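Here is my example:
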Amino acid sequence: QVQLVESGGGLVQAGGSLRLSCAASGRTFSRYAMAWFRQAPGKEREFVGAISWSGGSTYYADFVKDRFTISIDNAKNTVYLQMNSLKPEDTAVYYCAAETSYSTDYVGGNKISDYPYWGQGTQVTVSS
C-alpha cells in the first residue's frame, strides 16, 4: 500500500505558473508508475500526464503539451507537475495517482482504472 499526498495548489493569475508535488509514503521500496489527473467542477476526472519510475518516459494529454512538465525525484519519493502558461480552464482539483510497476521504464495508462492508488487532491484556481 502506498499513500500519496499532493501539495502546491493555490490561486494564480492566467499566464502564471505553479508546481504541484506528490509525496509517496508507505511501500515506497516498490516502484510505481505515476500520473496526474484533474477534475474541474461539473466535469469528469481527466488524464493530464504520466511518468515512469525512472523518469525516462513521459506522456501528456494533448491539451497540456508544452505547458506542463512531469518529473520525479526518486530519492524523495516525490513526483512533480510543473504548470506554466496557466489558463482559467486549467482550474480543477489535481490528483496524483500510482500503480505498481515492475519495470522502472514502464509508464502507465491514461485511464482512471489503471491506477489503484490516489491522493486527496489539491485545488488549482486560475483567475482571468
